[in-house]
Amino acid sequence: MITGKQRSYLKKLSHGIRPAMQLGKEGITENFINQYEVIIEANELVKINVLDSSPLDAKEAAHELAERTKSEFVQAIGRKCVLYRRAQEEPEIKLPR
Fold this sequence. Notes:
globular, Translation Initiation Factor IF3, 4-stranded mixed beta sheet, 3 helices, alpha+beta
């Protein structure tokens, strides 16, 4: 579980990154989760663009994905959401205490 201070720090970091994935009409499938796992392990912080055709809104998608992948919900704004998970090997992001 991340603290409010850590969440604010991650929000600041996420401001400059582009969405790495798009969630479409299929919703959160096993294939989507497999792709997400590869990207989150490499980057630790992932921004996802939730398309209008998606059955979920950004906040619902982020919470469901976070729960299913043991990630942390950072934020959801409009059609975009941001998730964080510390890398297993060589984490790059150092969270404040």
